[in-house]
Design a protein that fits this description.
Length: 345
């Protein structure tokens, strides 16, 4: 089958690889119907050293079950499914607490011998706990929104959930990528009174306004912090949702958080250490939360919202390419020509 492999920064190729097969009795093989490129895929695209083993790419997909292991009881061949970006058993104590991305029996696509989803097919470990069936009668026009549930929308939702967004709160969202825009949508649905979106790309912030942003701040760094503080009367935001992952974004976050407020990070941190002392968090009594979104914990409710027409998170997709042109999708997202690109095997 064809699959996407990354050999180093900027070097993405589609190559023939062996078809996935059942390894463990809890596995399933899924034929991929739709996949996409994630903003987090751009981190290795910009920095991965050349010369090492190729990395299988892709962790967001819809597909059809082709085969199941002997211990899979909740799925059968032909089921149409959506997968979270991480697999998990959905039964252990950690999963029951709602933190599936820390499941001791779970893991990540593209790692540990599990292939990536920017491919014609993929092996899904812990299939019963991971995959969620989509009604066969689902309108094809909602497939993009269902695909968005595999990561970006529910990552934005997780940011707002962990930040305890609710009625009357002022929220600042840092980042106008697909996750940041999803955080705006989720915050509005949770009742935030004011949502300040920090982003400088008008086509994206226009969608953010449609989804509930009351203010847009295109400035970055100290200038952006000053603008948010001006908009909030010098008090800052009750909740700051950081959807970028770079140090500049984190610095903006603690610069605009209100005393007693909380920063919720879902942008994959591209740094190992970050300030938490008096001048950043401690002096403000500010909290820090967030992490990899346990998408599986939220999927059933989100699927129902999409099928009922209450949300349309698939609007973050602004282009589509066939699998053989996936390298074009990486380039277009890296240069910000496109926000998020669907990949169709």
């Amino acid at each position: 089958m064809r699959a996407t492999l990354m050999y180093g920064a900027g070097d993405v190729r589609v190559e023939e690889v062996p078809d996935p097969r059942i390894v463990d009795p809890t596995d399933a093989i899924v034929r991929v119907t739709l996949a996409c490129v994630c903003g987090s895929d751009l981190h290795p695209y910009r920095s991965m050293p050349a010369g090492g083993p190729a990395a299988p790419m892709g962790h967001e997909f819809l597909g059809v079950v082709e085969e199941t292991g002997s211990q899979v009881t909740g799925l059968r061949k032909g089921d149409f499914v959506v997968s979270p970006f991480a697999f998990a058993d959905n039964t252990c104590a950690i999963c029951r607490d709602g933190f599936h991305t820390a499941c001791p029996n779970g893991g990540w696509y593209g790692a540990g011998g599990v292939g990536g989803a920017q491919a014609e097919a993929v092996r899904v470990p812990q299939a019963d706990g991971t995959l969620v069936k989509i009604p066969a009668e689902a309108d094809p026009t909602v497939l993009a929104s269902l695909l968005a549930l595999s990561d970006v929308y529910l990552t934005g939702y997780h940011a707002a959930h962990m930040g305890r967004v609710n009625a009357g709160k002022t929220v600042t969202v840092i980042g106008d990528g697909a996750v940041g825009l999803s955080a705006v949508l989720a915050s509005r649905r949770m009742g935030a009174e004011r949502i300040i979106l920090m982003g400088g790309h008008k086509a994206r912030t226009d969608l953010g306004r449609e989804w509930g942003a009351t203010d847009v701040v295109p400035e970055r760094g100290a200038e952006g912090v000053a603008k948010v503080m001006e908009l909030t009367g010098g008090q800052g935001s009750h909740v700051v949702l950081e959807a970028v992952g770079y140090m500049l974004a984190y610095e903006q976050a603690y610069g605009v958080v209100r005393p007693g407020g909380v920063i919720s990070r879902v942008g994959v941190p591209q740094y190992e250490q970050a300030p938490v002392g008096f001048g950043s968090l401690f002096g403000k009594n500010a909290g820090l939360t967030g992490g990899p979104a346990p998408v599986r914990a939220y999927l059933e409710t989100a699927i129902a919202d999409v099928l009922a027409g209450r949300i349309e998170p698939g609007r973050v997709f602004d282009a589509e390419v066939p699998l053989d042109r996936v390298a074009d999708a990486y380039r277009a997202m890296d240069t910000r020509e496109n926000l998020k690109v669907v990949v169709r095997p």
